[in-house]
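[audit] Reproducing an earlier prediction to check determinism. Same input, same settings, fresh worker. If the tokens differ from the archived copy the diff job will pick it up downstream; this log only records the rerun itself.
[audit] input (353 residues):
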Amino acid sequence: MFSTTKTFHIIGGGISGLSAAKFIRRKHKNAHIIIYEAAAHLGGRCFSFYDKKLERNIDNATHAVLGANTEVKKLLGKEKFYKKVFFWKEKQIHSCCRQEIPFLLLSVFNTQAKQIAKSLLISLACKLFPFFPTQRKIYFSRGDLSDKLIAPLSGFADEVKTGWKLQTFTSEKDKINSLKFNRGEINLNKDDVVISALDAHQYQQIFNGPQFEFNQITDIYFRTGVPLTLPKNIPFLGTPDNLADWIFINQDIVAVTISNSHNIKLSDDELARFVWQEVRSVNGLIPAFLPPYRVLKHKRATIRQDEKNQALRPKSALTQYQNLFLCGDWTMKDYPCSLEAAVNSGKRLAQKI
């Protein structure tokens, strides 16, 4: 067991960094754990906030969790999972069939099905989609990501420093000896451990890591004022023939997700109007007006998960520095970039340390 003088410096307070703190704490009870987060809040791309325009809590992006995502399920506890997925195709509602496989792959990997690396397809079949009904259930966030995932994980660190952005570092031989943030410099003791929970872009910028290509995800939130319903009163719907990929209902908030959206050239207002027409057309209606909306574009939502970028992903949590370790969904080779991969990266890291 380590003494309290051993400090773990976690750079990045997203799901992977918070999960790393959790699993390190389980393994090393007396460790001193510090999380440094550049933003003013924890969660990375997984958090909720109050939107003044909509006057509601919304998620930075709607996240879906599968029944097979065992580590994230543990964090959610007894949260309700839906057993069936429905699709709107040719103006009809129907359940999943083989025709929807390319669409589902796009949703999971944020990459066109024909471009996805083969090793990732094998991983999906073996790890994330066991062919058992209990594993194919789905949960989606409803403006509660911070409450359901971030808050429970934030208590595993001894210190949380928000607004601390890592700018550079110094090293001697094969060890990092200082971390330089916008708010000051941290000199490391010889036994200290540094954990990068940065996204792939930030890691490349600071630590000269691999240079990935990225795909965008766009989320649009509409506030309807009164609860909107979908056919058969289902809570969410896949729409493969539309620009909108998924429609999620949370009382009077309608959330729309568009995967691999970097080629869309519409303005926010044009996009919101077009998508709102698609949403209402599912019920056979032509909208009379556009409700209040918020468009959130995540330009580097995930790495592009094709053969080229898959080959650049690290094979382990190790780096060229003895005291620097990696976590993050992009670091889990042969895993789809997802919440499950992020949590598992923190677990793998703690085991390696």
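[audit] rerun output stored. Observation attached for the diff report: The longest strand covers residues 293-303.
[audit] end
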